[in-house]
Design goal:
Elements: E1 4-16, E2 19-30, E3 34-38, H1 45-53, E4 60-65, E5 68-72, E6 77-78, E7 86-89, H2 101-108, H3 114-123, H4 139-152, E8 157-161, H5 169-186, E9 189-194, H6 197-203, E10 206-211, E11 214-219, H7 221-225
Parallel strand pairs: 3-9, 3-10, 7-8, 8-9
Antiparallel strand pairs: 1-2, 1-4, 4-5, 5-6, 10-11
Length: 226
Amino acid sequence: MEKILIELSIKKTIHTADGNEILDIGLTIPEYGFVTLFGKSGVGKTTLLRIIAGLIKPDSGYVKVGNEIWFDSTKKINIKPQQRNIGFVFQDYALFPNMTVKEHLLYAQPQIEQGYVSELLDTFHLKGLCQRKPDKLSGGQQQRLAVARALAQKPRILLLDEPLSSLDSETRDILQSELFQAHKNFHATTLLVSHDKAEVVKLSDYVYIIEKGRIQKQGNPIELFG
């Protein structure tokens, strides 16, 4: 039986194009799994990532990771984001313009491990770009750096908010393969937000389909989309 890492049951009022809606979600994510939240824009996928990260507070419910309670509205527990062992890759990458590629990775590490940084640079094909700053990188290279930086801190959970959505199809296909390999190599439980069916099938072990504030379907992506 798979060991459950994340257990979540929350309610949160969100603002949609059709007005306010209650996000009412319960889900479980296995340790080392690659799970996708799938649905149209505005259904609350990114809100769920931010709730796990501690960047948004639910109206009620709980978030449990392993044996730790990260949020519980009844017990008034809400662990600070910096105390949650997560790596977060935002849609806009949120890179520092004044830092080189290597400086990004060193800065992200709690304790500097040059060997681990070298492994990340190799995995994401950034070794020859160590001294470049973000404005000298292509979109694909910036995406690679954003994921590598998130993994540099050795997070238990990797949160990916549509990190490939702005890339052309050829670059996106290559980076999907690199992302899948990185998930296997670095052993982080990964939660992806996507609305691309092909991407979900290629990367995910399991998918939750969200519509109208609730999980409408869940299961193996090939069975749901194949």
